[in-house]
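Folds abound. Consider this:
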Amino acid sequence: MLRHSRLLPLAAASLAVAAAAQSPAPASPGPVQTTPATPLAYRSPLAGYQPFSAEGVISWKDANDRVGQIGGWRAYARESAPPAAASPTPATANPARASPGHALPEKPASAPAAPATPAAPAAPGAGQAATSTETSTMRTRRNVKVAATLLAALALAGCATVDIDQAVTDTNQALPAFTAGQLELTRTAQQREARRQLASELLARPLGRDDAVRLALANSPTVQALIAQSWNDMALAGQAGRIPNPVFTFERARLGDELEIGRLLSIGLLDLITLPQRQAVARNQIEQGRIQLATSIVEHVNLVRQAWVRAVAAQQTLGYARQVFDAAEASAELARRMQQVGNFTKLQRARQQAFYADAGAQLSSATHARTATREELVRQLGLDAEQAEQLKLPQRLSDLPMQPRAASDVATVAWQQRLDVQLARLRLDAAGRSQGLNLLNSLVDVELGGRHDTVFDSGEHRNRNGFELDVRIPLFDWGSARRAAMNAQSLAAANRYEAVVRGASSQLRESYSAYRTAYDVAKHYRDEIVPLRKAISEENQLRYNGMLIGVFELLADTRDQVAAVTASIDALQQFWLADAGLASTLVGRPLSAGAATPASTSITSGGDAGH
């Protein structure tokens, strides 16, 4: 007992240091500064485009009289000249806002509050020495029961529960546009059979974009692996918030006729003191795991959507590539026969043959593109070989929506749903909570144990009760390096949070610009370029019927019309890719789906041979 009494002052000093270490860390990061919110805006570059319209034909005499009345060609030149530059208005006086484009708010974020340090529970009491053998035995039994009850209660209080089914349900509720409530962890044979039946039903008909997402959630082993891995991560995080098991030590020593049996039940006193703080950190990490699950599901769903768009567009493009190849083949064969009868030169035939060869190369590339994009979709859907044979896709991509998404709606939804901002904030809070906890662990380590020894000597036995207190003395290492590392970690977490908040605004501006630009380009192809090519083709058909052009000019015009339709398909593909990228950006998982400019098409039909 003398040894225990000497350790009491040192233990009290260590516990005082431990209590002080749980106070908020002094090196807290500064407040996160963001720019004031401004509305997201977009102005289409095609806003001033004048569409093609049919004009009535008037007599040449009336036209000349009209030109003379308005002042000749100089009046036309003045009308077509650009107006003088106006003085800048207050809205455009700022150089940063002078050019039309996009301006997304950088949402102001308040500085994260320092986490409150919960009060430490009272340390368990130590056993007292018995005055007699009978009373000592009774008190020992009573103390053992009380200690067992206390440890059981603390163990139950320290359990951080992890319910993966609830986490999946939360993901379905938070992301209805991505999961439609279909996300589920498959663990039983009945669930697997139900999923296989659903996959068979979806594969029995042409697979739409939404059905492709349902099929991936139901059939893909990658999705199941993501859920299981999140379960593992959350379970490990919950384990960190529990009390370690106590240690029971049994000793047996003999000296002559004297036999001594020692029993010691010990537990980490520091683990009890820091239990509330460790539980808070564990709950934070579990919440991080849930957000990571949602982030992974969003990423996979968008990959499925983009793979579906590419596969359908490649299939549609392949059909038009075959038409170009057939037209080029007919043109090359006709040129060969005309050269045989002396109506074509070698140069004229070589030009037609070169186009035929180029069309063959493009057909081969389009065929491989269809195979590659289809197999990419098969992998994203998680189909086996039998299911891949059953996969059928629509003949064409979906039409453009009537109106694009409004900028104001996009900005509002983005700040409410962004997962990356939520995750960065949780990591910042976890860094602040862990700083005090790690500081305490770097200074002291205390273990408390209750002893019950029995000594047998000359047919008699004596019981001795007491306690042990093991304290790690910070004599050589006061943890200065570890504290510096913790301060740096908290500062890094704060700056990462600010970087995510700032980057979110920039990512949304870029993604919305790609979305609106792709919409404008696809709409321009649909409403202007393709109808123009159709009108040119009809006029050339009339000219051919009137024997004003030959068959080669007609075939060249057909090739140009098909090229315009192919470019229109590519523009529509870019829009749906940008739409998937914008949906992903809104929830904090931006994808690289910028609006690519389709291949330009010539408005003049070529042909170097007459009829």
Remarks:
- The radius of gyration is 39 Å.
